[in-house]
Amino acid sequence: MRYSRSIKVGILKKILPPESASMRSVSKSTGISEQTIRKWKEAAVSGRISLSTDEKSPRSYSGIEKYQLVLESSKLSDEALGRFLRERGLHSEHLQLWDQELRDMAKGKQTVQEKGQKSDRQKIRELEKELVRKDKALAELAALVVLKKSSRNLWEQTRMLDSL
């Protein structure tokens, strides 16, 4: 069975100083054979296994990385999926949660777009009402100007007639 790097590092930190737990007790508590732990210790001492933990925890993945992992895992068979998860130190629950997160984000984006479209339609209606009101006011003003000119012309004609 293959163990992820993070599991190996965790076991090695337990058996090496400062903890210095016995291999037998760590083997019993984890279910990993003493021989396997001994090989990991020899590899760590010789420098073949680094004890630095540069693997990411599931919480530190970005949205894009989560999306890529969910996509990759969706194409795998059950056996390959188990290997995939062990190599990355993940659980199947992580993938399920991330999938749901991504679905919720997509739904949220749709509702935001729908709200934006609704407010845009409302703004258009308001602007159209204002345009109709201004058109009416302009038509009324034009009628008043025409009426004023007509009344002036009529007044001038009546004066001419009176003067004759």
List keywords for this structure.
single chain, 164 residues, mainly alpha, 6 helices, 77% helix, rod-shaped
Question: What report would you give on this structure?
Answer:
The chain has 164 residues and is mainly α. The chain contains 6 helices and no strands. It has helices at residues 5-15, 23-30, 34-46, 63-74, 78-88, 92-163. Helix 1 packs across helix 3 and helix 4 packs across helix 6 (92-163). The chain is rod-shaped, with a radius of gyration of 40 Å.
Class of secondary structure makeup = mainly alpha
Question: How many strands in all?
Answer: 0
Helix content: over 70%
Outline type: rod-shaped
Distance between the termini: 124 Å
Radius of gyration: 40 Å
Sketch the topology as an H/E string, one letter per element.
Answer: HHHHHH
Mean pLDDT value: 85
- If helices are DSSP runs of H or I spanning 4 or more residues, what is the number of helices? 6
Largest sheet: none
Name the beta content range: under 5%
Low-confidence stretches: none
